[in-house]
Specification:
The chain has 13 helices and 17 strands. It has 383 residues and is an alpha/beta fold. The longest helix has 12 residues, at 196-207. It has two domains: 2-169 and 329-381, Medium-chain alcohol dehydrogenases, catalytic domain (Quinone Oxidoreductase, Chain A, domain 1, Alpha-Beta Complex); 173-326, 3-Layer(aba) Sandwich (Rossmann fold). Keywords: Metal-binding, Zinc.
Length: 383
Amino acid sequence: MRALCWEGVDALAVRQVPDPELRNAHDMIVRVRRSATCGADLPLLGGRIPFLAAGDVLGHEFLGEVVEVGPEVRRHRLDDRVVVCAAVACGACWFCRQGLFACCDNGGAGAAATESAWGQPTGGCYGHPAPLGGFAGSHAEYVRVPYADVGAFTVPDPVSDDRAVFASDAAPTGWMGAELGEVGPGDVVAVWGAGAVGQLTARAALLRGAHRVIVIDRYDERLRMVDRHVGAEPLNYRYVDVPAELRERSGGRGPDVCVEAVGMEPEPPGLLGGRLGGRADRPLALREAVHACRKSGTVVVLGTWTGFVDTFPLGAVMNKGLTVRSARQHGQRWIPMLLDRMARDELRTEHLATHRLPLERGADGYALFRERADGCVRAVFAP
């Protein structure tokens, strides 16, 4: 089959790779219909995670049709249209039973490397090297889906492919951001980053009853989406003093919840390995979120980070009494609810698929996405 593979730092190529096969009774094979780029891919492309090898297949946000099922798969049948959670989880370990699917003990293959880097092993993810799962990615014609009854969900008929594909990762990540912040009626919420996750965090906050939601970015095309499709307030940081403006819009206190949905810079290489090293990240948006948040408020970290950060304002966290929360998305908890909201037209995401390309143009799609060129929010591939 054809797949979009990593060939080295910032180099991609479509090549022939072996077709996936069932490896155990709970697997199934999905023919990919849509597969989207994601900001979490950029550290991989830029060599920030050195375990990636030439020929590894990228991609983790996808939707497709079931073409083969293992004998123990109960929830899915041939030809079902399913969206697959980007996080791979067994559904049976202690963490999965608590709903913490991204912390699954059995969802990753390279426990030793992540335990060395982060103190404990974490769950797996499609399109990542062995220390982060070792599962071939979704930028391909076919994907093996382990623990199929746990991670795959049937898409309701009214929901289009371009809408449903975002239920794989971006939409549950956004909902998790609002939930970690315990957003409720009357809250003022600020979100740094107007990409797919930032926009869907803002939409989740509004659906949970927030009084005002402000999204901060510098790209006018994305900020127009925030106004037109999300219903939140856009704020371009090139033209205003962001903390002062946020105080003005929150009764002088600052937002109740501040969400960082930007993540680390895509370069330079070399933060995650058997030992962490290299230059530390500069969490510019996260620092601003901490300083802008009201006293005793909550800061949520949704952006992708792999190693150390530099100049984190811990003094502000302690002296202001802030709560800081973060996680990789536990999408299995929310995907059925999000698909229902999509079917009822409460959650619209297809506008995020700004560029629809064949798999053969995968390298072009990532170039647009990485440079945010031509108004690109997400490139979506249709093998």
